[in-house]
């Protein structure tokens, strides 16, 4: 089976700015914690898994990384927007659990517990200060960090990341799902492309 999904995402987590997960560093938060709890909401502009069209679907990916990423024992859970069909929700669950290969298949060896797939209202907004919402679970707003030229600060070619280049900033709000509650601090946003066919030369572990 083959899949390709592309679009944009917004993520927030408990790590103090800047989150070290992208370079496999030990997570740190402002309260002295050494794990990473987060959520990322994705809007699929175009995509499909075989004959299942995934275009227009939004979903949230929740994570608990108890230590640096390659230490493994991750907990992950997914919320698929209630407007998606059952076939679309099932397809996304298979992709994100790693069952369909590609980038998520590469990362499956680090997952200690897949917490399952739920349904709910999931949305993401664009603009100068974007936000994400997962009804009953998460409400986060994002403020980008700006460089000396006034442009957003970006990270490129990180070992782990939802994109090869992403903008970073701060998030505020609340989040609690799958038993994973956290106070958001760090945030990031970018476009993404995930596929069952890994690009030649792509680093192992790159989401």
Labels describing this entry:
207 residues; mainly beta; 2 helices; 13 strands; globular; disordered C terminus
Summarize the SSE layout with pairings.
Elements lengths: L2 E11 L22 E14 L2 E2 L4 E8 L8 E8 L4 H11 L5 H6 L3 E10 L1 E3 L6 E4 L3 E7 L9 E3 L8 E13 L2 E3 L3 E10 L12
Parallel strand pairs: 5-6
Antiparallel strand pairs: 1-2, 1-13, 2-3, 2-4, 4-5, 7-8, 8-9, 9-11, 10-11, 11-12, 11-13
Number of domains: 1
Summed up, the helix count is 2
Strand content: over 45%
N- and C-termini, Cα separation:
19 Å
Helix content: under 10%
Oligomer: single chain
Biggest beta-sheet profile: 13 strands, mixed
Shape: globular
Q: Average pLDDT value?
A: 93
Write up this protein.
This protein is mainly β. Helices cover about 10% and strands about 45% of the residues. Strands 1, 2, 3, 4, 5, 6, 7, 8, 9, 10, 11, 12 and 13 form a 13-stranded mixed sheet that branches.
């Amino acid at each position: 089976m083959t899949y390709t999904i592309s679009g944009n995402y917004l993520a927030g987590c408990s790590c103090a700015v800047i989150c070290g997960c992208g370079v496999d560093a030990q997570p740190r938060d402002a309260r002295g914690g050494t794990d990473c709890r987060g959520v990322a909401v994705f809007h699929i502009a175009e995509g499909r898994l075989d004959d299942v069209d995934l275009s227009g679907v939004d979903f949230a990916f929740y994570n608990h990384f108890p230590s640096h990423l390659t230490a493994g024992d991750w907990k992950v859970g997914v919320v698929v927007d209630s407007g998606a069909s059952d076939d679309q929700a099932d397809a996304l669950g298979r992709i994100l659990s790693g069952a369909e290969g590609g980038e998520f298949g590469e990362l499956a060896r680090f997952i200690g517990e897949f917490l399952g797939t739920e349904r709910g209202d999931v949305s993401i907004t664009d603009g100068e200060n974007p936000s994400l919402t997962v009804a009953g679970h998460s409400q986060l707003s994002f403020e980008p960090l700006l460089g000396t030229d006034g442009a957003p600060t970006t990270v490129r070619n990180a070992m782990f990341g939802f994109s090869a280049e992403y903008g970073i900033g701060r998030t505020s709000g609340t989040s609690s799902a799958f038993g994973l509650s956290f106070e958001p601090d760090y945030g990031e946003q970018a476009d993404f492309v995930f596929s069952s066919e890994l690009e030649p030369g792509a680093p192992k572990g790159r989401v």
